[in-house]
Structure formats: C-alpha cells, structure tokens
C-alpha cells in the first residue's frame, strides 16, 4: 500500500486537480467526501485520457465530479493480500483506496500487491 496519495475536491476542474497532483506514481486522484454520509470517489489518469482528451473536452472546463467513479470499492488495511488480489480480479479493479475507520489511509494496486506483498510473504517464509 502506498500511504502517499492525492485527495482532491470533486468541484475542482480536471486541470486544477492535475496541477495539485503530487504522487503521479499512483496514477489516480482520490476524491474527498462532501460530507460525513458521502462516499469517496476516484479519478484515474486513464479516465482523463478517455473522457477529456479523447472527447476533445477542455480540462479547464470539466469538473472532477463529472468524470470520476463514485462510490469506489475499497479495502481495509488488515485484508490479506491474497484476498485483496481476488477482490481486484472479481470486480475488475486496478487500484483501490485503503480505508480504516472511515478515513483513507492509503491506496493499493496490483503493483503494490506483487512487489511488496509477494516479496514480504517470501521473506516471512524464508525465516522458517
């Protein structure tokens, strides 16, 4: 899991959100809740390519909320990495916010699962 992620307001324009983006390696922006009973959203860079660039829309005139996914399927930080991989496969996810106690604490992707998850498991098993 990456604990560095970008959390933006859905009312921002796509251009404002991209300029605010500090963690390009996550390839996504998490969209904050508007209020306590709301859900988090997610904007993938591929969404911007497909829904703004490919349709010749101006990123200065499109708001994040218009093209984001919401609600997003999330995982808990205590979820076993094997179940997380199955969850991603079952629901066609490429990345997901990690939420504990109603707050985003990170973001997980297949890359994190493979490079950090498998290597972590290998280290645990090699100690036997």
Q: How do you describe this structure in short?
A:
With 128 residues, the protein is α+β, with helices and mostly antiparallel strands. The protein is built from five helices and five strands.
Give your account of this protein's structure.
Helix content is 38%, strand content 18%. The protein has 128 residues and is an alpha+beta fold. The protein has a single domain, classed as Roll (CBS-domain). The strands form two sheets. Strands 1-2-3 form a three-stranded mixed β-sheet. Strand 4 and strand 5 (103-109) form a beta hairpin. It is globular. The mean pLDDT is 90.
Overview features:
128 residues, alpha+beta, CBS-domain, 3-stranded mixed beta sheet, two-stranded antiparallel sheet, 5 helices, 38% helix, globular
């Amino acid at each position: 899991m990456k604990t560095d992620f970008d959390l933006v307001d859905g009312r921002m324009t796509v251009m404002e959100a991209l300029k605010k983006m500090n963690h390009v390696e996550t390839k996504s922006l998490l969209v904050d809740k508007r209020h306590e009973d709301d859900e988090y959203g997610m904007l993938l860079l591929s969404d911007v390519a497909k829904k703004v660039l490919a349709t010749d829309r101006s990123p200065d005139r499109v708001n994040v909320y218009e093209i984001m996914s919401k609600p997003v399927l999330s995982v808990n930080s205590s979820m076993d990495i094997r179940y997380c991989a199955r969850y991603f496969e079952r629901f066609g996810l490429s990345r997901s916010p990690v939420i504990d106690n109603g707050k985003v604490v990170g973001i997980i992707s297949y890359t994190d699962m493979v490079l950090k998850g498998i290597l972590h498991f290998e280290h645990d098993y090699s100690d036997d």
